[in-house]
Amino acid sequence: MEDLSQYPLELPESDKPMVRFQNVTKRYGALTVLDDLNLDIAEGEMVSIIGPSGSGKTTVLRMLMLERIQGGVIYVDGKPLTHMQQRGRLVQASEKYLRQAREPVGMCFQHFNLFPHMTALQNCMEGPVQVLGMSKKNARERSEELLELVGLIDKKDQHPSRLSGGQQQRVAIARALAMRPKVLLLDEVTSALDPEVIGEVTEVIKGLVSAHNLTIMMVTHQMGFAREISDRVCFFFGGKIEEQGAPADLFDNPQRERTQQFLSAVKSAD
Amino acid sequence: MEWNWEFTWEIMPRMLVATGNTLIAAGLGYSIAIVLGLFLALAQRTPISLLTLIVREFVEFIRSTPLVLQIFFVYYVGPQYGIDLSPWVAGMIAIGLHYSAYLSEVYRGGIESVPVGQWEACRSLSLSTSDTYFRIIIPQALPPSVAGMGNYLVGIFKDTPMLSVIGVAELMHAANAIGGQHYRYLEPYTIVGVIFLLISLPSAGVIRVFETWVRRKLGMI
């Protein structure tokens, strides 16, 4: 068992990033996917995560939302997410605590995962009404605003099966935003899209970055897009951050050999 | 022995009343099975492994023993432990329990057919477990379950004659009684067969229509 007393119960105001991964290790059986990860993400920062498949980049997001970790602690907005306080000590978070602690974190998926039996509007209202306890009227107003923002207000009464991939992903973004998250996780949100509709989704994301003080972590294969909108890019390799930095530095002047290899491989594939 | 139309018409009112009872028995039993089956399916998905194991074994036990034994058991063994049930109550418990085991398997298959991404989306919205099941997963598990549920509706309907062994006044029971009184079995049994056929035959079509209706209602086509 790991000694959890080395981790603070809460992060102090003077050193409080929006997301902190501290010594985080994630294993699937004998396979270590993330190895002693330390990563801070500041409030309002837009961080892109790139790397070859199997490098653990998607796992970084999934640990904030879907999965338990085997070592270390993750903090969101200064509070532990993976652990909770009990009698002045950190212990493994219960399901109930996790559900609550994850409320400030929203996520969009590669395959959208919209609820197929609900309209676009109902998809957006589901979280606010059921989880935040908002009135239907207020949730509807908020959802309509967000569908307006992603340019789909005229499709609000359509079911996902009637929408294109790009439209579904925009509804999924609106659905995630309806929970007023502080952190938004974007997991390869353009990977399953036809090339001609990728633009409509990236436009929406660009709008979010400029207009809202939203912290965004994005796993992507689109290097051009990552470069254009990120404050920082992290290159993952073998479950660790191999190199990170401002997009211009990392893309134009990569220091590590693996980064150089990866970027040139991606470039020649384009 | 020749078919006697006069006798046929004479016993028809009694047969039709019994048909009503058969439909009520099937309907009640199915209602019990539909609800109980869902709980049996959900209980097998809880993280409590002991509960999962007990329910799993219970379902296996019910499915591996004859319905008629279960009916006898509830009706005749119950009173020896002070549980005195009327034929109707005992019959509904037995047949409802029996079919709940089958329906739980149908639900299980339906729930497992819902893509894992739907669970992840629920998690990403922090939906509670009950909201996740009842608002998101089960509605989607329904369309692929309708065909199997329909099969067991026809099944429970055709199994109601077994309730005659404990004296529930359904069709088979009425036919037996009429036959015994008049020493004529041809007409009552034939009528039973025809009535079952008339109700069972169109049901496959009705179920298909219902399945399409459910999908449309849920906006999934």
TrEMBL record, chain A:
<dbReference type="InterPro" id="IPR003439">
    <property type="entry name" value="ABC_transporter-like_ATP-bd"/>
</dbReference>
<feature type="domain" description="ABC transporter">
    <location>
        <begin position="19"/>
        <end position="263"/>
    </location>
</feature>
<keyword id="KW-1003">Cell membrane</keyword>
<dbReference type="InterPro" id="IPR014343">
    <property type="entry name" value="Ectoine_EhuA"/>
</dbReference>
<dbReference type="InterPro" id="IPR017871">
    <property type="entry name" value="ABC_transporter-like_CS"/>
</dbReference>
<keyword id="KW-0472">Membrane</keyword>
<dbReference type="InterPro" id="IPR003593">
    <property type="entry name" value="AAA+_ATPase"/>
</dbReference>
<comment type="similarity">
    <text>Belongs to the ABC transporter superfamily.</text>
</comment>
<dbReference type="GO" id="GO:0005524">
    <property type="term" value="F:ATP binding"/>
</dbReference>
<keyword id="KW-0813">Transport</keyword>
<keyword id="KW-0029">Amino-acid transport</keyword>
<protein>
    <submittedName>
        <fullName>Amino acid ABC transporter ATP-binding protein, PAAT family</fullName>
    </submittedName>
</protein>
<keyword id="KW-0067">ATP-binding</keyword>
<keyword id="KW-0547">Nucleotide-binding</keyword>
<dbReference type="InterPro" id="IPR027417">
    <property type="entry name" value="P-loop_NTPase"/>
</dbReference>
<dbReference type="InterPro" id="IPR030679">
    <property type="entry name" value="ABC_ATPase_HisP-typ"/>
</dbReference>
<dbReference type="Pfam" id="PF00005">
    <property type="entry name" value="ABC_tran"/>
</dbReference>
<dbReference type="InterPro" id="IPR050086">
    <property type="entry name" value="MetN_ABC_transporter-like"/>
</dbReference>
UniProtKB/TrEMBL annotation, chain B:
<dbReference type="InterPro" id="IPR000515">
    <property type="entry name" value="MetI-like"/>
</dbReference>
<dbReference type="InterPro" id="IPR035906">
    <property type="entry name" value="MetI-like_sf"/>
</dbReference>
<keyword id="KW-0472">Membrane</keyword>
<feature type="domain" description="ABC transmembrane type-1">
    <location>
        <begin position="19"/>
        <end position="207"/>
    </location>
</feature>
<keyword id="KW-1133">Transmembrane helix</keyword>
<keyword id="KW-0812">Transmembrane</keyword>
<keyword id="KW-0029">Amino-acid transport</keyword>
<feature type="transmembrane region" description="Helical">
    <location>
        <begin position="20"/>
        <end position="41"/>
    </location>
</feature>
<dbReference type="Pfam" id="PF00528">
    <property type="entry name" value="BPD_transp_1"/>
</dbReference>
<dbReference type="InterPro" id="IPR014341">
    <property type="entry name" value="Ectoine_EhuD"/>
</dbReference>
<feature type="transmembrane region" description="Helical">
    <location>
        <begin position="189"/>
        <end position="210"/>
    </location>
</feature>
<keyword id="KW-1003">Cell membrane</keyword>
<protein>
    <submittedName>
        <fullName>Polar amino acid transport system permease protein</fullName>
    </submittedName>
</protein>
<comment type="similarity">
    <text>Belongs to the binding-protein-dependent transport system permease family. HisMQ subfamily.</text>
</comment>
<dbReference type="InterPro" id="IPR010065">
    <property type="entry name" value="AA_ABC_transptr_permease_3TM"/>
</dbReference>
<dbReference type="InterPro" id="IPR043429">
    <property type="entry name" value="ArtM/GltK/GlnP/TcyL/YhdX-like"/>
</dbReference>
<keyword id="KW-0813">Transport</keyword>
